[in-house]
């Protein structure tokens, strides 16, 4: 079992907590997860769950700590502590809120680039709260050009979101393993 810590960040009200609840199966007795009420996140919430993901010809078990970080910059002082030990970042923006994607480079600078993540350790969720919103990646900043974008909504078929998340987890699991190996080698080399 590999343990990974992943940060979910992005502007306020973009859908981070709803998506995090959905990924962690934290919403129970609710037919439509998008209808489950959320409250503005105070600081950070941590959701823990396990996933079994396909890797090569086999499968690996991954124990996920998903950190649902408030989009409110009032909590910025806690970001270094929040980032500590993270292996990946998911950037969520509201695709129905014109121009919101333009600020993604800030979030990338503050989190992914700050942590030295590879593009494969980051993912963008272009979240649509209504089916009327058309997915588009045209205005995503250049610094994120190689970062995988997934169009998400909790309105319709949700399976794709978990499939994409599992695919992302394979990259994160590999990165976590490589890092552990490097740490072990440096201990042996001392
Ligand atoms: N109808 C609908 N509402 C959504 C969807 N995703 C999020 N919301 C609502 O949008 C609001 C903000 O979502 P929230 O997850 O709290 O955003 P956060 O601030 O990024 O954590 C909440 O009222 C959610 O219920 C969706 O797919 N469909
Ligand atoms: Mg929230």
Automatic annotation (TrEMBL):
It holds the Pfam family Roc. GO terms for molecular function: GTP binding. Keywords: GTP-binding, Nucleotide-binding. It is found in: Plastid, Chloroplast. Its main location: plastid. SUPFAM superfamilies: P-loop containing nucleoside triphosphate hydrolases (SSF52540). It comes from the Eukaryota. The keyword Aminoacyl-tRNA synthetase does not apply. InterPro entries: P-loop_NTPase (IPR027417). GO terms for cellular component: chloroplast. This is Uncharacterized protein. It comes from Guillardia theta (strain CCMP2712).
């Amino acid at each position: 079992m590999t343990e990974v810590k992943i940060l979910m960040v992005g502007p306020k009200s973009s859908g981070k907590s709803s998506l995090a609840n959905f990924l962690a199966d934290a919403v129970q007795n609710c037919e439509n997860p998008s209808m489950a009420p959320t409250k503005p996140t105070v600081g950070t919430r941590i959701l823990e769950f396990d996933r079994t993901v396909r890797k090569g010809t086999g499968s690996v078990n991954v124990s996920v700590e998903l950190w649902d970080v408030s989009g409110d910059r009032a909590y910025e002082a806690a970001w270094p502590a929040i980032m500590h030990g993270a292996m990946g970042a998911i950037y969520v923006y509201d695709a129905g809120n014109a121009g919101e994607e333009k600020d993604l480079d800030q979030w990338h600078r503050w989190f992914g680039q700050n942590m030295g993540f590879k593009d494969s350790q980051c993912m963008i969720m272009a979240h649509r709260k209504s089916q009327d919103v058309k997915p588009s990646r045209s205005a995503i900043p250049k610094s994120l050009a190689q970062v995988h974008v997934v169009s998400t909504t909790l309105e319709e078929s949700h399976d794709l979101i978990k499939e994409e998340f599992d695919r992302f987890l394979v990259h994160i699991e590999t990165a976590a393993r490589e890092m552990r190996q490097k740490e072990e080698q440096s201990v042996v080399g001392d």
